[in-house]
Amino acid sequence: MDSFFKWFLLAFLQYMACLKAVDAQFPRPCTTVEALQTRTCCPLWNGSPCGFSSGRGVCAPHPARDLPKPIDYRVNWPRAFYDSVCTCWGNYDGFDCSQCLPGWRGPQCLQRHHVEKKEITDLTDSERETFLSNLHTAKDVQSDRYMILKSNDTTVDRNYEFQNTSVYNLYVWMHYYSAKSYAGSGNNAAHRGPAFVFWHRVFLLFIEREIRDLTGNQDFYIPYWDWTRTDNCNICTNKYFGGVRQDGRIDSASRFSQWKTICPFQESLGIICLNTNASEAAHLIRNPGKDPVFKTLPTAADVKDAMASQLFDTPPYDTTSKNSFRNKLEGFEIPSDSRRLNSSMHNLVHRYLNGTMSLVPTAANDPIFMLHHSFIDNFIYVAPNSTKLFLGTSTEKIQHMNNHKQLWKETKLPFEWKKPLQNQAQGWWLSAALVGVRGYEERREQDKQIDSLRQKKKERARETSSKTKRDNG
Ligand SMILES: [Cu+2]
């Protein structure tokens, strides 16, 4: 009896632990016991799941694919948790179809939303103050839409819990989690391959939209930092992101000195974002130019070298790719000048800042990350209503960044890098689910189905009306 009681107590405690895990809350409405048990993430909008009765979307089965072992929750996202998720129609977007696709606004998401981005040092005083204050709000205010996932061992069934997070820290977590290597490979979803550019674009579009919703400032956008204009971190001052002390900490006169980092370690696959040693890496650290190997920022000549690439990416579509625009931009393919660099372009900026920005899992904790990637994103754009992919840097081109529908939706991707992009698409799915943007192929497939349904409906209507005419005649 005694041992039975012990067993019972143990079972009861485990049950309670499970409850806590599921009770603690991804999309917040999908973290309830009911959503997790029914494996359905189709939140209500205006009274119906996915806003179905308002014509916004439908709760549909996620394309089923087997999950590999060991379970990596990110693969076929969010299959590990849900069988059904919202599929949004038209320009509707978001986990509950309550939002508009990036680049659209208005009650029916039919108005174009144009935002012209500026270089950070070109902002007026009031523009800069608004930007920085919106950023601090995002850092301070809890997201009421999302929670983040933590686990000390995902190989144990249901061993995870959801935690509250600020809007900015949610974004840090997304980058941290996507940058984790896949089991048995050095690859990850967001870097070291063709998805690099697009993953980070979706990422920026995501946080921009969240900050707009949070602050009500619909014109919020992430300015870019043009590091070719300077030979030092000209935004590492209290006017911008905080001056830097001798020890690498941010000057206490800057509000950024108060910013605490989250998920500061690159743990093994099964561990998700545990601040196992809270005393370390708590604050932002920068030591620009102090790493003897990465002393300088990339130059305008480096940009020119990358832009001269004829091909977006080349086999084997990784860090060893040669004559690849993507690999040059990312910074693994080094320009053949006399500087004997160990990394260039995007990577070099990260390493140059020498601190929070230099390590992939921690990098997004530093707000300079956004501005750096906003600049990287300038190098690739799609003109509205165009099917062609352009590489370019002029201001005229920069304004296109935010005013087109998803690149995936409008671009016919050149075949030679479409395939590897799909191979790296798990990153896309991760961001896709979190961001609420569907993958290109899936979306196109759905659009085709919807078109054919509409077509059939029209034909039927035509048949009925001609039949009525005949009957009346
Ligand atoms: Cu990144």
Automatic annotation (TrEMBL):
It is an enzyme of class 1 (oxidoreductase). It comes from the Eukaryota. SUPFAM superfamilies: Di-copper centre-containing domain. Its main location: membrane. Transmembrane segments: none annotated. Coiled coil: none annotated. Residues 191-208, 366-377 form the Tyrosinase copper-binding domain. It is found in: Melanosome membrane. One of its GO terms (biological process) is melanin biosynthetic process. Keywords: Copper, Glycoprotein, Melanin biosynthesis, Membrane, Metal-binding, Monooxygenase, Oxidoreductase, Signal, Transmembrane. Pfam families: Tyrosinase. Residues 1-24 form the signal peptide. It is a single-pass type I membrane protein. Belongs to the tyrosinase family. This is Tyrosinase. The lineage of its organism: Eukaryota, Metazoa, Chordata, Craniata, Vertebrata.
